[in-house]
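Folds abound. Consider this:
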Amino acid sequence: MTAAGRLGVLGGTFDPIHLGHLDAAAAARAALALDEVLFVPAHDPPHKPDDPRASAYHRFALVALAIADSPAYRTSDMELTRQGASYTADTLRALHARGWHGWQIFFILGTDAFAEIATWREFPAVLDFANFVVIARPGTTLTDAAARTPALRARLRTLGNAAGVSPDGTGIYLVEARTRDVSSTTIRARLAARASIDDLVPAPVARHIIAHELYGAVDDLHGQDEGIRESSPA
């Protein structure tokens, strides 16, 4: 069965998901007229030395909560249920098996990740598995990103060409966007310091993190309830 439309794919550890991720998805969808965006939490991100701080269950739940009000966004557990390192090449092959053609898929990543793409598994063949959408992040320009990967210049496409994307091949699209300067590391540091993260993540994500005391967060209401129970007469 052949899938229809254009599919954006945003992979990542999402430890936790934040507003910067959502900004990137929105920018790619608007720039390339994507019909939907699939968020794919990684089981074992190969380019990060440390294991995710939160479990696969919680990271999947956080993504689902973050996009619950966006009908064009979906969450996939395809990498969480696949053992071993979460390679993009394997994920794109899985999408091909589900009926998606490479020219219909738009893999979304930041300029920092794009600069390291030559180290990815099955590079450069992986570039034929999907289109790649490179989103500018604060402090990094698209000009710099392209300059660091001169061998890929022939694959660069302008957004003006995006309307005519066809089975003729895949390309790399550079999208200028105002994404909030947020990182999962900053969020975890704030939580460890018992500081607010309300300006960094959607409200349902913050509530889930606090309720389950993830990343060193403390549920003050839960703590107060415990104190009340402990001080109550038997």
Notes: Residues 221-234 have pLDDT under 50 and may be disordered. The chain has one domain: 7-231. The radius of gyration is 19 Å. The helical segments are 19-32, 56-66, 88-97, 111-115, 142-148, 184-192, 203-211, 220-231.
